[in-house]
Amino acid sequence: MNIKTITALIVVAAVMTRCATQPKQETIVMKKDPHSYSRPNEAKVTHLSWKASVDFDSKKISGTAKWKIEQQGNPGVIVFDSKGLSIAKVTLDNDEATYFKIGQKNEILGEELIVSIKPETKAVSIEYVTDPSAEALQWLSAQQTAGKKFPFLFTQSQAILARSWVPSQDSPGIHFTYDAEVSVPKDLLALMSASNPQQKNETGTYKFEMKQPISSYLLALAVGDVSFKPISNRSGVYAEPSLVDTAAWEFADLEKMIAGAEELYGPYAWERYDVIVLPPSFPFGGMENPRLTFATPTILSGDRSLTSLIAHELAHSWSGNLVTNSTWNDFWLNEGFTVYFETRIMEKLYGKDYAEMLASLNLQDLKDEIESLNAANLSADTKLLLNLEGRSPDDGVTDIAYNKGYYFLRSIEEAHGRDKFDAFLKSYFTENAFKSMDTEGFKNYITSYYQTNFNIGLKDSTFNKWIVTEGLPADHPQPSSTRFKKVDEVLASWKAEKPLDATQSKDWSTHEWLHFLKNLPETLTQEQMKAVDSFGNFSNSGNSEIITAWGVISIRNNYAKMNPKIESFLINTGRRKFLSPLYNEMLKTEDGRRRAKAIYDKARPNYHFVATNTFDKLIK
Asked: Cα–Cα distance between 91 and 7 in angstroms, integer?
């Protein structure tokens, strides 16, 4: 029996219970999300009450998800997304059992969970258990943590992995509030993307509340031996006890960032802004879970030089969390706006030239990404507006969304003035708060705003050459950094066969060193590699950005001195941004492929599904 027939039978069963007549309801049409089975135009969720127990021994979460719902047109069913969940039972309102059916599994989307409802149904409760291999959950042994004493659990729900630990309508276009009660081992602290405790209690049971509506990809849970240290009355840092002081020092400017962001684009809407530094297997630099950014320890550089990542995740409190892409095809709306906002925060705190260094590095990364996608016959993925139907939405997580999106917005700012763009952006966040936005909606909003407020007509050609055209427009903005120009002078002098002088670089930041490394010649002799290494002491660096950039150069030029460091780094770091360039460089030769496979076999147990999902296909 196919899923359409099953759905029809459930609808018939539900219809038989209906009243003869029902009041007419207003129809609100939402855009169909190709990555969700849900049908929000018929029935959608509005609030989640989640009660769960975390079991490290079995690597399972046992939970009940009670969803408040709204119906339109008496559909007879409500449809949820599920992936690998064992559903024990489903009830309506006051514990009334109801019929449900789980559809066939799709490798990317998981399973459709169809629940029969009545016209008067206000709530659906789903009792379930997660699978030990649930894609969103990473269960870490004590040995995989800094403290080596207690296990650790964290989630990564973006893009469509929330359905693997909570049955949900797992689409960014659907928003809901939530409360939760979570029981964990008494030695551990539980935290969520909600109101959070700041210390352990004696019971191991913690309660949470998220009053502001969020999308399912922003559901988050972390459980571990963590401590808290305040930075201001509305911000602080969670980390394992051995790291919490280091993290607090690194993020000392957190409150300044929040205040600076508010001055730019309006009040922070989420009450608190805290950061948790996770174990190294976390696959991203950061994840903008509301109230509690999840961050990689790779940004603990010891010199506060990599905290633009925190500015980026903070900026998501407006772009993404507040105004959310309606589907993952519109992902650039989340990330392009956020890179723009992040860069403005960094400029406000540290000056124009600092921000221009970041923008210059972003442009170089963007050009490299376009070249890489073109080489892989994926040139269509260099458009801002994507078509990811039938594909994993993770395929859209590239520098195109982030940096091409940023340069598109910057091009509008430069063409018509920063004051106008700032006014637009503040209005955009305010008027669309807690709503979803697609690319067409953005175009309509900004076009109307500029015409109404400034009598400026934004041309269709401007949107088309950025949004639906491949590659990077030739007339894109050109960042200019005085500090990078000095680095370029050092490079030019060295290429003219003058020796490198350490006094020239004594005040360089991580960004200047990265610019230096990324502009070295493609091929270097062993003597040149030694000279460059001596100049920057790169092989002894503890900075993840430097290790990655120098590692790629070392692999390309067979600089054996870096081999042990690269292997250790790949085994002990899970951030996909760093893994990809190193593995990809090794895979360019047969010897490198053998080496990559040997390292990956050792490293894979330390990686999150988000990383293994990428590298299993690439390396095995």
From this structure: 18
